[in-house]
Design goal:
This protein is of the alpha+beta class. The chain has helices at 3-12, 24-67, 73-114, 122-131, 175-192, 200-233, 235-239, 242-249, 261-268, 328-340, and strands at residues 17-19, 117-119, 137-142, 148-152, 156-162, 165-170, 270-278, 284-294, 297-308, 313-321, 324-325. It has a five-stranded antiparallel sheet with strand order 7-8-9-10-11, covered by helices on one side. The longest helix is centred in the N-terminal third of the chain and has 44 residues, at 24-67. The protein is rod-shaped, with a radius of gyration of 35 Å.
Length: 352
């Protein structure tokens, strides 16, 4: 061998560490894991696209409802937060099922790399681990028993020898520590033997991304859960003024129990708009604005409903056509005309 790789290879073969370059089983196992990673990567992308599509549909539906005044912006924010939290929970549940299988595969590759090494000098092993430039390694030291210990970003790992076979034992068995163990073992073998069929750099980068996935999911889940719980406690912010508008829009007169104000007004008027405000006297008022025919011309119609929120009732308080207020009799006649014409004609209605 020549150049840098040759120099590293000679350094790795200093007395104290031997590498058996019997890479057939390691090569087959590495290929299987790469195929599995690609397959699960494709599945993950498909699921991500599907989730984005579903969230997009919900967002478009909510935006349409916001434009129509049926829900508030905060309602949409709360709903999206709930969906994000549910998505994170499903991914966590998925990882909880797959983790044992993934750990077995990750540990298998790490163990296959380690069993090719024979360490006769622990200082030589400590030196090799220190010099192999693995980002997963923060520090290397000898413990009170003389074992080589590697302090990783996730946990401590201890090199041990069982029946002549080198092993790396993490302080705790988790998904992230399994990824870290694989990175350390792969980097060490590649450092000791440049011919090893392991792409240590790509493997370490891939494992680092998988490990960060948990932190991203945890952050998303925490933020979305906080938003969801906040609006659950502050339902007044969630509903806002829309609850007052919905109270009128979904209501109906006693004489027309099957027709809501919303349906009747949408059928009779054009450019329908509903809004809520609190009067100077502290009264809850829902105002409707639309256009219809009167005296052969299209005119603006404004109608105000006075709400009794505690009782869940409301009544027509005032109406005006092109700014001219109507009498109480004309108010009643207006409602009768609107509801009586429902389902009997097409287009804009005509005031009597």
């Amino acid at each position: 061998m020549f150049g840098t790789n040759g120099e590293e290879h000679e350094k790795a073969l200093e007395p104290g560490i031997e590498v058996r370059e019997e890479f057939e089983e390691l090569s087959l196992l590495a290929q299987k894991i790469r195929s599995s990673e690609k397959r699960w990567g494709k599945i993950g992308k498909v699921l991500a696209v599907l989730a984005l599509f579903l969230w997009g549909r919900v967002a478009l539906r909510d935006l349409s409802s916001i434009m129509e005044g049926e829900i508030s912006v905060w309602y949409m924010v709360n709903e999206m937060a709930g969906l994000i939290f549910a998505g994170c929970a499903l991914v966590y549940a998925y990882l909880d099922v797959v983790v044992p299988i993934v750990n077995v595969k990750k540990n298998s590759l790490a163990d296959e790399c380690l069993k090719l090494m024979t360490v006769k000098d622990r200082q030589a092993l400590k030196k090799a681990v220190s010099e192999m430039h693995c980002q997963a390694v923060k520090s290397v030291y000898l413990d009170e028993n003389g074992n080589v210990c590697v302090q990783g970003k996730r946990c401590k790992h201890i090199f041990q020898e069982e029946e002549g076979v080198l092993t790396l034992v993490p302080a705790k068995e988790t998904y992230k520590t399994a990824l870290e163990k694989e990175s350390i073992a792969g980097c060490l073998l590649k450092y000791l033997s440049s011919d090893a069929p392991v792409n240590a750099y790509e493997k370490e980068r891939y494992n680092s991304r998988l490990s960060k996935l948990n932190y991203i999911l945890a952050a998303l889940a925490t933020v979305s859960a906080g938003v969801f719980l906040f609006f659950g406690v502050r339902s007044d912010l969630l509903e806002g003024s829309d609850k007052y508008v919905r109270m009128v829009v979904s209501g109906h007169p006693g004489s027309y129990p099957d027709i809501s104000y919303g349906d009747a007004f949408d059928a009779f008027f054009e450019n329908c708009e509903w809004s809520y405000f609190k009067s100077d006297q502290g009264q809850d008022v829902v105002e409707f604005h639309g256009r219809c025919f009167s005296d052969g011309e299209k005119k603006d119609v404004d109608i105000q409903f006075l709400l009794s929120v505690e009782d869940g009732t409301f009544e027509l308080y005032a109406s005006a056509i092109d700014g001219e207020f109507q009498t109480e009799f004309e108010n009643g006649l207006l409602l009768i005309t609107v509801f009586e014409s429902y389902g009997t004609g097409d287009g804009i209605g005509t005031m009597p």
